[in-house]
Amino acid sequence: MQSHSLQFWFEFASTYSYIAAARIERVTTSVNVPLEWKPFLLGPIFREQGWNDSPFNLYPIKGRYMWRDMERLCQRYQLPWQNPSQFPRNGLRAARVACLVQEEPWCPAFVRVVFHANFADDRDIAQTQTIVSLLDSLGQPGLSLLERAESTENKERLRRQTEEAIQLGIFGAPTFVYGTELFWGNDRLEEAIEWYEIHSASRETE
Tens digit of pLDDT for each residue in 61-73? Predict the structure, then answer.
């Protein structure tokens, strides 16, 4: 069944997802476009392509461009930025938590503080204590939420969501999806919103 919202597929190791997560609510809210936050894992997708690392590490020229591009974009959007001392960091625990709470109203805030920890504060988001601390900072019960996120049921939920991303044809993050249309990259956000506005309106008149 097709979602009536614009879907925002993101990965916590993704640099460009950091920028998209920081600005997407402001942009979609200003035009009344409903939004779904969809965490997933890029690792299985990369492995299907024969990659065992980020393409930004596998292809150094591309990586050098990306790091400079991030500096420019963060300056443009007035976002704090610090080159992470480890890249990519393992965002599995954070993704499990985000998957668990993706329908909660505070999920976007959690996503943003995780990205901020990774790309502005250079904190290790793979560590249990980091995730618990970030949840606690939002007034949430960090330890109990992480325990629920690590349940077999929720692990399977994230696996299924990643499989859904693969079935949609997603190959990178961030990706914005409406229906069968994919828009890859932070710089395609406005185009995705425009597509949503046109085609959701036409569906309503059918």
Answer: 999 999 999 999 9
Position 99 in a domain? yes
Sequence-ordered strand ranges (E) for 64-150: none
Both tokens assigned to 178: 């409406």
Enclosing domain of residue 119: 6-204
Overall number of domains in the chain: 1
What CATH number is associated with residue 80? Answer: 3.40.30.10
CA nearest neighbour of 96 among 155, 136, 145: 155
How many angstroms separate the CA atoms of 35 and 194, rounded? 14
Q: Taking the mean position of all CA atoms in its chain, how far away is CA 176?
A: 10
| E-only strand ranges, the chain | 6-10, 35-39, 175-178, 181-184
Other CB atoms within 10 Å distance of the CB of residue 29: 11
* Residues whose CB falls within 8 Å of the CB of residue 39, separated by 6 or more in sequence, listed in order: 9, 10, 11, 12, 94, 95, 98, 99, 102, 111, 158, 161
Q: For the segment 34-71, what is each residue's pLDDT rounded down to a tens digit? A: 999 999 999 999 999 899 999 999 999 999 999 999 99
d(CA 137, CA 30) in angstroms, rounded, equals 27
Residue type present at position 4? H
206, two tokens? 């059918």
- For residue 1, being part of any structural domain is answered with no
Total-model pTM: 0.95
User: Is the CB of residue 37 less than 8 Å from the CB of residue 28?
Assistant: no
Asked if residue 182 belongs to a domain, the reply is: yes
